Amino acid sequence: MSWIVSTFITVEGLDGAGKRTLVDGLRRQWEADSVRVTTIAFPRYGESVHADLAAEALRGEHGDVTDSAYAMALLFALDRREAAPALRELIAGHDVVIADRYVASNAAYTSARLAEESVSGAVAATEWVRTLEFERFGLPVPDWQLFLGVPVEVAAQRAVSRAEHDASRDRDRYERDAALQERVDEAYRGLAAAQWVSPWRVLSGDPEPGLAADLLA
């Protein structure tokens, strides 16, 4: 399959939307066709001090850090900046690289938090994330951004069930905030409709025949 031009794909959605399931499914399909594929997940908990600080803050540590949407976004952005050299190597060495969450997560969550204050604040946050991560930090731009647009209540139920069966995946402050999750879903749909930064595809969450082939067409 050497004819394939390296493709960088990101998978976005609420917690419980099924991102990991989709990433694993696409990987298996491409591996079966001898496509050189690898995956990466953000935030890189356990690998990045910035990601770990953000996780700790979302569980009540580090004072009032979570009070600032921009402070939290900066921690997540710095995690990706640290990973950028390794990510570029992965893209250069594989036909396909799939990221479970990427820059759009920062844009969606930050704008959703600021949407409570004003529409203009939410729009400004989205542009701030784009400028910071893609321009200043020089992160690779995805060829495709896939949004798993499952109903918010379905994603929430899955997240609760997951936490009940796996203590390592307990829900943090963002995941427990139902109103925030509603706004994040709206923010994601707005980004997809605007084809923010690069092409988007909205998925229902159910298996879509031919998706793997379509993404490399």
TrEMBL record:
One Gene Ontology CC term in the entry: cytosol
Keywords from the named record: ATP-binding, Kinase, Nucleotide-binding, Transferase
Residue ranges of every copy of the Thymidylate kinase-like domain listed in the record: 11-192
The keyword Transferase appears for this protein: yes
SUPFAM superfamilies: P-loop containing nucleoside triphosphate hydrolases
A biological process term (GO) from this entry: dTTP biosynthetic process
One Gene Ontology molecular-function label: dTMP kinase activity
Keyword set includes Nucleotide-binding: yes
Gene3D superfamilies (UniProt xref): P-loop containing nucleotide triphosphate hydrolases (3.40.50.300)
The organism's place on the tree of life at top rank: Bacteria
Family label: Belongs to the thymidylate kinase family.
Protein name, per record: Thymidylate kinase
Gene designation per UniProt: tmk
